[in-house]
Specification:
Layout: E1 9-12, H1 14-18, H2 23-32, E2 37-40, H3 54-66, E3 70-74, H4 92-109, E4 113-116, H5 130-150, E5 154-157, H6 171-181, E6 186-191, H7 192-198, H8 203-210, E7 216-221, H9 236-245, E8 252-254, H10 263-278
Length: 285
């Protein structure tokens, strides 16, 4: 048997914020459930203005640390900015400017990874085909990733389900962008819900295929029904077994969008499911 001492669960905070919990309450709930970190959505803590206020961000970081938690990173980067676009050349400079400020925010918060999902910023049109979108994404992200590299952070482009966006839906597609940007601090990730909708192989097989190649810098776990692990039918026993088989040591972020009863109960289900599976002997191959 293994213990959960090497399991680092981080909770994505937006559901708790949506339920009306302030940051200190979010931290108390997460800590009481055994989470070791928070992955923050910038729109939940008021740090989305054009100005990066180091004092405010430092205070947020200290409040989280005072509860025994770490800020593991930030996600939903462009959700508070409806006019931002990863794919539209006419909004390139504006979007790059926002992302550069978010990189600074992540550093000041003490995070180590930025997760770029933000489906609203990845919508194509008759004038923006996938190749134009790809070229623009490279141009947007190159200066952002250069700053990420300077600060010792990691920037992840997230494969999203086709129901959310037609652009960058699989690990392989994201790796084309990774190759074009060409920076050691720019990688991709696996979101288990999105992967369950968009990939041609099982999520466990996806983990075993790509993690050993050094291109996966982050993992978010949620069921394909958009709930927490344990709220649906996805084979999280196989997913956890795969993560253990590749010696995954980075944080695992629980990111549910649907709730059972309320956000705190949902977070509890996700933590309990992951911890129970992590401490169970790996099944024989």
């Amino acid at each position: 048997m293994t213990t959960d001492s090497d399991l680092f669960l981080s909770l994505c905070n937006e559901l708790l914020a949506k339920d009306g919990h302030d940051l200190d309450t979010q931290c108390r709930i997460a800590s009481s459930l055994g989470y070791r970190g928070l992955e923050l959505a910038p729109g939940t803590f008021g740090a989305t203005s054009d100005a990066t206020d180091a004092k405010i961000l430092g205070q947020i970081r200290q409040r989280i640390v005072s509860h025994g938690l770490a800020v593991t990173g930030i996600h939903w980067l462009l959700a508070p900015f409806p006019d931002a676009s990863l794919v539209d050349p006419s909004r390139r400079s504006y979007t790059t400017g926002i992302l550069l400020k978010l990189v600074e925010q992540c550093s000041l918060l003490g995070g180590s990874v930025l997760v770029h999902g933000s489906p609203s910023s990845r919508q194509l049109s008759d004038k923006i085909c996938k190749e134009v979108a790809m070229e623009n994404a490279v141009a947007v992200l190159k200066p952002v990733v250069a700053r990420t590299d300077d600060l010792g952070l990691t920037y992840c482009i997230e494969p999203l389900a086709r129901t959310e966006t037609p652009f960058l839906n699989t690990v392989a597609e994201c790796l084309e962008l990774v190759d074009r940007v060409d920076s050691g601090s720019f990688l991709t990730m696996i979101d288990t819900s999105a992967a369950g909708h968009s990939e041609d192989v099982a999520v466990a097989d996806l983990i075993r295929e790509w993690v050993p190649k050094g291109v996966i810098a982050h993992v978010q776990v949620n069921d394909t029904n958009r709930g927490a692990p344990g709220m649906g039918q996805d084979p999280f026993n196989q997913i956890v077994e795969a993560l253990k088989s590749v010696s995954w040591e980075r944080p695992i972020a629980v990111e549910p969008f649907q709730v059972v009863i309320d956000a705190a109960v949902t977070a509890a289900i996700g933590a309990a499911t992951m911890r129970a599976l992590w401490t169970t002997e790996m099944s024989s191959k």
